[in-house]
Specification:
By secondary structure, the protein is α/β, with parallel strands linked by helices. The chain has a single domain, classed as Alpha-Beta Barrel (TIM Barrel). The chain is built from eleven helices and eight strands. An eight-stranded parallel beta barrel has the order 1-2-3-4-5-6-7-8, surrounded by five helices. Strand 1, helix 1 and strand 2 form a beta-alpha-beta unit. Helix 1 packs parallel to helix 2 and helix 1 runs parallel beside helix 11. The longest helix has 18 residues.
């Protein structure tokens, strides 16, 4: 059975004191929950302070990760660096990295491969733009991004499923207030799981968690989490307020 994962992406928000304060509230909200996991991805500058605030109660993640252990890669952060500060996961391929910073499928695949090689669980983000959805290209885009992102990754290894999380984030729903309908979310998640089954096998694909991201909030989380193939949420703006994120963490089925 897949354990739900509620993840908060803080993006480029919060100073050290604000990050630590929010982290303590998130840890308090997650305390005692055994039927789900909680993850937060603070800015790199706040990782150490957040780690001290949450301990082992909340999973810590980087918002991105390089593919090399060290070297002349100005502006990047390596998997061992993230692990050294307490990270267990890393977001890879977020639409803002693709759309704003021009990261293509090849670079995303390198980042994902490096994360796995150094023991981080990658959260591979995929999703279509509004133009692509309106052109009925959603499934084509999702399959392309998924296959390219996972190129060279062996999912048939029994140890592989825990080393991968996929996040479906329709670009048109990120930060816009628009959310995919529950039917749209389930349809996309079921399609993604089908592609994962082709890349591995059905029982392996059945173990991989697929998160939904895109204007998830306290008002829609219960309905989204009730869908068969929605295994969690990747939350942006609503993760920056303790009360709203607590309600999302404590979603009800």
């Amino acid at each position: 059975m897949r354990k739900p994962l509620i993840a908060g992406n803080w993006k480029m928000h919060l100073d050290l004191s604000g990050a630590a304060a929010l982290a303590r509230e998130v840890a308090k909200a997650a305390d005692g929950l055994t039927d789900r996991e909680v993850m937060i991805a603070p800015p790199f500058t706040a990782l150490a302070a957040v780690r001290e605030a949450v301990g082992d109660r909340v999973i810590l993640a980087g918002q991105n990760v390089a593919w090399e252990e060290k070297g002349a890669f100005t502006g990047e952060i390596s998997p061992p660096m993230l692990r050294d500060v307490g990270c267990r996961m890393a977001l890879i391929g977020h639409s803002e990295r693709r759309q704003i910073f021009g990261e293509d499928d090849r670079m995303i695949n390198k980042r994902l491969t490096g994360a796995i090689r150094f023991g981080l669980t990658p959260v591979l983000c995929i999703g279509e733009t509004l133009a692509e959805r309106e052109a009925n290209q959603t499934f084509t885009v999702l399959e392309k991004q998924l296959r390219a992102g996972l190129a060279g990754i062996t999912l048939n290894d029994p140890a592989a499923p825990p080393t991968l999380v996929v996040a479906y984030e329709p670009v048109w729903a990120i930060g816009t207030g628009k959310t995919a309908t529950t039917a749209q979310a389930q349809e996309a998640h079921a399609f993604i799981r089908g592609v994962l089954a082709e890349l591995s096998e059905k029982n392996i694909a059945a173990q991989i968690r697929i998160l939904y991201g895109g204007s998830v909030n306290a008002a829609n989380v219960d309905e989204l989490m009730a869908q068969a193939d929605v295994d969690g949420a990747l939350v942006g703006g609503a993760a920056l307020t303790a009360a709203s994120f607590e309600r999302i963490i404590r979603f009800r089925l």
